[in-house]
Write a structure and sequence with these properties.
Bound molecules: adenosine-5'-triphosphate
Number of domains: 2
Distance between the termini: 58 Å
Mean pLDDT: 92
Number of strands: 11
Shape: elongated
Oligomer: single chain
Structural class: alpha/beta
Strand content: 15-25%
Order of helices and strands: EHEHEHEHEHEHEHEHHEHEEHH
Radius of gyration: 22 Å
Number of helices: 12
CATH class of the largest domain: Alpha Beta
Largest sheet: 7 strands, mixed
Low-confidence stretches: none
């Protein structure tokens, strides 16, 4: 191996830069040349490659987002698009690509590997929905941002006797909402994987008030059947009977921003180093992730098109804790 490329794709996640830095430095330490691809798969198709150096990736460890940029590319979903990307890669003799991203990005990585091009994926998405890694780059930072919002909302909710609902990201995966709900002490957690009726949220909040709490709050995942908008509509429709107001805050992209936590920087550095070690031993077509604390590889064909299930024990724990 002499020359590799690295790209970030799909939604950006805090810690991606630490992974870029680790791939670059570990690759150069092996005597390889490392190229950064700008704007994900769109840059691969356009041949937007720039050489990365040891010094060139200085000062990015603590930055959120991705210095390589990220994009969503419809063209890469077509065979023509991928053939263009392959042509560009061969033009400058790149022998393998490291793809840092979530589910969609790893599906693209698999498609490229099926065209006999060596790829290695790195598990990176705030959604934590990837099979092949217990936790993915960006999740810890996103969770900490959600917790900060919860702590602030609790203060204002206590002052006004209002129920609050925080909507967090995660597409169809409820991990962020569940983990933020448990860590933040939510009275109600609404996630796509376990359907509940709006009346159950009302009851949870009512119990909190009856116990003498001055506030009640819940966390809802954006992909839940009853998301924040629908729950608010239910509360206002039944306002007279329910007897208290519901206010919502949607974190949206705020959750992706900011400085990556120590955990995300460490995880991303280990996964970046793991991707280089994987390529060095000639293994490709795999996702590098972390399972039970170890850096592991899982064939991409076992990763794509699946969603990691949430931990039912964590959901049960949330229910026990909110009864106190
Ligand atoms: P996140 O979950 O953090 O938002 P993601 O990697 O799942 O990230 P997507 O937008 O789903 O983000 O996918 C990123 C890119 O991966 C797409 O824009 C597309 O270029 C590529 N991709 C997705 N699905 C496929 C596919 N079936 N074949 C080829 N490429 C794909």
């Amino acid at each position: 191996m002499k020359r590799i490329a690295v790209l970030t794709s799909g939604g950006d996640a805090p810690g991606m830069n630490a992974a870029i830095r680790a791939v670059t430095r570990c690759g150069i330490a092996k005597g390889w040349e490392v190229f950064g691809v700008h704007q994900g798969y769109a840059g691969l198709i356009a041949g937007d490659f720039r050489a990365l150096t040891m010094r060139g990736v200085s000062g990015i460890l603590q930055q959120g987002g991705t210095v390589l940029g990220s994009a969503r590319s419809q063209e890469f979903k077509t065979e023509d698009g991928r053939l263009k990307a392959l042509w560009e890669l061969r033009q400058i003799d790149i022998e393998a690509v490291v793809i840092i991203g979530g589910n969609g990005s790893q599906t693209g990585a698999y498609a490229l590997s099926q065209m006999s091009f060596p790829v290695v994926g790195i598990a990176s998405t705030i959604d934590n929905d990837l099979v092949g890694s217990d936790i993915t780059i960006g999740v810890d930072t996103a969770l900490n941002i959600a917790l900060e919002a919860i702590d602030r909302l609790k203060t204002t909710a206590s002052s006004h006797q209002r129920a609050f609902l925080l909507e967090v990201m995660g597409r169809n995966c409820g991990y962020l909402a569940l983990a933020a709900g448990v860590a933040g002490g939510a009275e109600a957690i609404v996630i796509p994987e376990i359907e509940i009726e709006p009346e159950e949220v009302v009851q949870s909040f009512r119990r909190a008030y009856e116990k003498g709490k001055s506030h009640a709050f819940g966390v809802v995942a954006e992909g839940a059947r009853y998301n924040a908008e629908k729950l608010v509509a239910y509360f206002s429709e039944h306002q007279a009977r329910i007897g208290f107001e519901l206010r919502t805050t949607t974190l949206g992209h705020v959750q992706r921003g900011g400085v990556p936590t120590a955990y995300d920087r460490l995880l991303a550095s280990r996964l970046g180093a793991g991707a280089v070690a994987t390529l060095a031993r000639g293994e490709t077509g795999v996702l590098v992730g972390m399972i039970k604390g170890d850096i592991t590889t899982t064939p991409l064909e076992q990763v794509i098109g699946k969603q990691k299930p949430i931990d039912p024990e964590l959901f049960d724990l949330a229910k026990v804790l909110d009864r106190q």
